[in-house]
Design a protein that fits this description.
Elements (H helix, E strand, L loop, with lengths): L4 E7 L13 H7 L2 H7 L3 E7 L17 H19 L3 E6 L4 H15 L4 E6 L20 H5 L20 E6 L4 H8 L4 E4 H7 L2 H14 L2 E7 L21 H14 L2 E7 L10 H13 L14
Parallel strand pairs: 1-2, 1-3, 3-8, 4-5, 4-7, 5-6, 7-8
Helix pairs in contact: 3-4, 8-9, 9-10
């Protein structure tokens, strides 16, 4: 595997929900040895340090929404950093709660548009994060990035999504916590969605392989957003949104190994790590292992399956 340039972008963002702790995530990934693991695999690593949010004076659409202005500021900051990082390598966004994806995906999709390439999004999560500010019952913006990025209304004041990602270019794998409003919106959409029953019945490789083939056929760019709660909380407890029945360690590694084999991933989020809830760093270490698998770590070499 040819070495890549991996750009680490720390996003100590904690505005997407009320429970604090994700602000410590970026440095936990560093402490768990992410840079060292990538370097051992033959990649060049550039660590840009941690971003600082832009100060924004922006009124929320309702008092129900938590930290609206702060999240708008983060989105603007991250989008700029993401677009710039794409010019130099493969950015890895170290979160931080999942609302950071509003900025990371916005930035990489702007870069893709300038390259006249289609942007695809693989969302590995127990939740679809397809709420809008008007449909969320919690007021937490970490549950809204997919709606924002696909062009749904209600995000006035946020940076403009010039090229919304077509719903059919989004695939969500790992679903097991979706409320009624979100379920109805998903069912009316063209988003490819796979809950854990799908995984139990067919395995995780089948839906992922089909989506990767679609990305390859379009010559697209693929952003992968990995939420800690994609994993079963028995193996990854350091998340504030634990939902039983998640992906096993082996299933998660298979996903990341397949992404590596495909050669299609152009950017990556590692989000929702709350070190305050971890057990001796086990979740941070597992997430670092998964990231390494997406960049070539494996037990035995196998013939690479081409998707081109």
């Amino acid at each position: 595997m040819t070495g890549k340039t991996c750009i680490l972008v720390g996003v100590p963002m904690d505005s997407g929900k009320r429970r604090r702790g994700c602000v410590m995530g970026p440095d936990s990934y560093r402490t768990a040895g992410l840079e060292e693991r990538l370097t051992e695999l033959g990649h060049r690593v550039i660590d840009l340090g941690n971003l600082q949010s832009s100060a924004v004076d922006q009124a929320a659409p309702s008092d129900h929404i938590h930290a609206w202005a702060e999240t708008v500021g983060w989105t603007e900051t991250i989008a700029l950093a993401a677009e710039n990082a794409m010019c130099h390598g493969t950015p890895i966004f170290l979160g931080g709660d999942h609302s950071l994806a509003a900025g990371s995906v916005l930035g990489v999709s702007r870069f893709a548009a300038k390259q006249d390439r289609k942007q695809f999004l693989l969302w590995l999560d127990a939740h679809s994060d397809f709420h809008t500010p008007s449909s969320t019952s919690t007021g937490h913006l970490h549950g809204t990035p997919v709606a924002y990025l696909t062009g749904k209304s209600g995000f006035e004041g946020f940076p403009t999504v010039e090229t919304p990602i077509p719903e059919e270019n989004v695939c969500v794998i790992g679903l097991r916590s979706v409320d009624l409003a979100e379920r109805e919106a998903l069912q009316a959409s063209k988003i490819k969605r796979h809950d854990m029953r799908d995984i139990d019945e067919t395995g995780i490789a089948k839906p992922l392989s089909a989506f990767l083939q679609k990305v390859a056929s379009a010559g697209g760019m693929l952003h992968v957003s990995l939420d800690v709660d994609f994993l079963d909380p028995l193996i990854a407890p350091a998340v504030g949104t634990t939902v039983p029945g998640g992906a096993t360690e082996r299933e998660a590694h298979l996903v990341m190994e397949m992404l590596c084999d495909s050669g299609l991933m152009t950017s990556l989020d590692l989000v929702e790590l709350n070190p305050f809830l971890d057990e001796r760093g086990r979740t941070a270490s597992l997430m670092v292992d998964l990231a390494a698998s997406s960049f070539g770590r494996r037990i035995f070499d196998r013939p690479t399956r081409s998707f081109t």
